[in-house]
Amino acid sequence: MLNKFCWFLLEGGISIVQPFLQVSAQDSEGGLYVCMNTFLGFGREHIERHYRKTGQCVYLHLKRHVIEKVPGASGGALPKRRNAKLFLDLEANGDLSSDDFEYEDEAKLVILPDHYEISLPNIEELPALVTIASDALLSAKSPYRKQDPDSWEEELQASKHAKSLVQLDNGVRIPPSGWKCSKCDLRENLWLNLTDGSVLCGKWFFDGSGGNGHAMEHYKETGYPLAVKLGTITPDGADVYSFDEEEPVLDPHIAKHLAHFGIDMLQMQVAENGLRDNDIKPRVSEWEVIQEAGVKLKPMYGPGYTGMKNLGNSCYLNAVMQAIFSIPEFQRAYVGNLPRIFDYSPLDPTQDFNTQMAKLGHGLLSGQYSKPPMKSELIEQVMKEEHKPQQNGISPQMFKAFISKDHTEFSSNRQQDAQEFFLHLINLVERNPVGSENPSDVFRFLVEERTQCCQSRKVRYTERVDYIMQLPVAMEAATNKDELIAYELKRREAEAARRAPPELVRAKIPFSACLQAFSEPSNVEDFWSSALQAKSAGVKTSRFASFPQYLVVQIKKFTFGLDWIPKKLDVSIDMPDFLDINHLRAMGLQPGEEELPDIAPPIIIPEDPKALDIDESSVMQLAEMGFPLEACRKAVYYTGNLGAEVAFNWIIAHMEEPDFAEPLVVPMFGGAASSGVAGLGAVGLDNQPPEEMVSIIISMGFQRSLAIQALKATNNNLERALEWIFSHPELEEEDGEPALNMMDLENHTNANILAEARSEGPRIKDGPGRYELFGFISHMGTSTMSGHYVCHLKKEGR
């Protein structure tokens, strides 16, 4: 029997709610019905059910008509809103040209059950209150403009420096490629100063790429105000930033300013990923192969072949959800239970996770939003020589707004990591059960971790729940090392001669080498051996205690460089169509092995609590995000130097406190000690752990009593306290409640989740360990904060 596996390359006022099915309902055949009591929106096929359930009988019916212009009529783009025929604050269909089509909005009051219609406006026949309510709805701002103001680009203003900009006659000429920051070795996120022609790197995370801020430093030294981002220059313009005005600006004289340095705008062309054509040649194969450029593809229609619109950096969400709803267990749980989910959901179905999942699943699988064009439409396309598939797809705006609510990253409009979103989704599925069977069970498996003390040779076996198999990239196993060495020599020669770089050569890594790297022992940092009662060298190996029904594999292509800038390993790894990992089955305690004694480390009170080191690299990462420096120091301090991610969560939880940005004050011992408060890594006078640490462990889902006990047993060392909890599962039984409620699953990079209540046992399905590839999600680009995700799925044998 073969299971399936999926491959992740990782690389208050009145508001109109989106209809029950996630489509542009005002453009659809039935239009949008808005309940005049709850202001909820529904498609035509669900209005009767809502009426029967609630008894609400008055609805505002909104319909947008798309009308083809009469040949010979004057062209030109129409206003997006607010004219005699277009009054709804809705975006026009981007697939239809405003030169060929125009829009007309229609509004009616519909009274059920007879569907009696009253056209609007109708001041003479309608009561004043109804007229006021209708006008308020028709003039309401789109809820998406309210929820996501940052997603709507503001109009750039011309810089005050553009007209009178002084350019030095220093003979600088900018080559068409091979750029590098003049103060460091960075080759991305580079800015050309329009006064003296200096090429310098941008700010850290300024636009999704890392930098050392040399462009800003140069402005502070020289006062030269304008810079253009290299790689964005096209015949239509370029990205210009004003350091003095501290914002992106327009430069009406950009062509003249660029020509001063030998750049002809008319010869420049930008690519989808923000790089110039000359510069993306090394990456053309990645984009072209994954997106099948140049191949004549046949449009697919019907159930399971419905696309999702990109809301702007929402490709990570679209790719994951397409894969999720290709799994039968998720289809049955949400789409199969659609009537029951809707009928028993809260009055406002937009506030129910399962309803949102059912809506999206129905939209993707029903085929109602992926219909082939009529014969007349096909003839018209041929006559116009248009071959673009006429699939409107569905818009996941409401789904994204709900599923990312209260999540700092996913609620933003920045590009995100597909693997992190997958874990976030599984977390929500776990917390919102539907029916007796949880569909996320198909991904869950048990990992056995064997830790061995290298000196005493004694071992400890523990188990944890996981959802993703993370494979390291075994760079040392590249099969084309000679080609890589030759390419690097050519690249350096081209750089020295300021020529275009040679065609890229990627390291070819066998998948078997990545699997081997996963199975090899890894060193355990700061390991405390209970056998020696002291710190010692330790190694850890991981094996599968159970095999999931669907195996999700992540190739860990994203890493951090020595400069702490996130980067993507540009390698090629062939994924097999069939995978057998039975050799990774856990075997448990073996004959002749002796277990480490179950002894907690001794409690040692440090002489000077202020001597604790604070990880300055984590502090700077947080400060670069815009948080006060002292708040960042406190966050890293109170989370025990466990990294910027954990400290970031502390910041979010404490940023409303009045002393949030106050300097860090470390409690002292003796007479100078704060009453009942202990510093990090020390025990207070009343032997109570710091409340900050207790809160962190509670936020991970553990009971308060267990958190306090673990901290006391480990001298208030947060990391060791967590390990102590993991190694004392019997204490979870005594609590009688689940040890983990999944609330912070997305904050664990390895999805390290303890089992549910031990009395019931974890919901684990065990399979044979043999899998067949059914889908993969590919990332194109150099960073998790940029690029594009694409999903490929095997359906009907293809």
Automatic annotation (TrEMBL):
Taxon lineage: Eukaryota, Metazoa, Chordata, Craniata, Vertebrata
Pfam family, one: zf-UBP
Keywords, comma-separated and alphabetical: Autophagy, Hydrolase, Metal-binding, Protease, Repeat, Signal, Thiol protease, Ubl conjugation pathway, Zinc, Zinc-finger
USP domain sequence ranges: 306-798
Domain of life: Eukaryota
Keyword Metal-binding: yes
Catalytic activity: Thiol-dependent hydrolysis of ester, thioester, amide, peptide and isopeptide bonds formed by the C-terminal Gly of ubiquitin (a 76-residue protein attached to proteins as an intracellular targeting signal)
KW Repeat (keyword) present: yes
Record-given protein name: Ubiquitin carboxyl-terminal hydrolase
UniProt signal peptide: 1-25
Domain UBA: 613-654, 688-728
Residue numbers annotated as active site: 315, 788
Family: Belongs to the peptidase C19 family.
UniProt GO BP: autophagy; protein deubiquitination; proteolysis
Xref: CDD domains: Peptidase_C19B, UBA1_UBP13, UBA2_UBP5
Protein residues bound to Zn(2+): 181, 184, 201, 214
EC number, UniProt record: 3.4.19.12
GO molecular function, one term: zinc ion binding
SUPFAM superfamilies hit by this protein: Cysteine proteinases (SSF54001), RING/U-box (SSF57850), UBA-like (SSF46934)
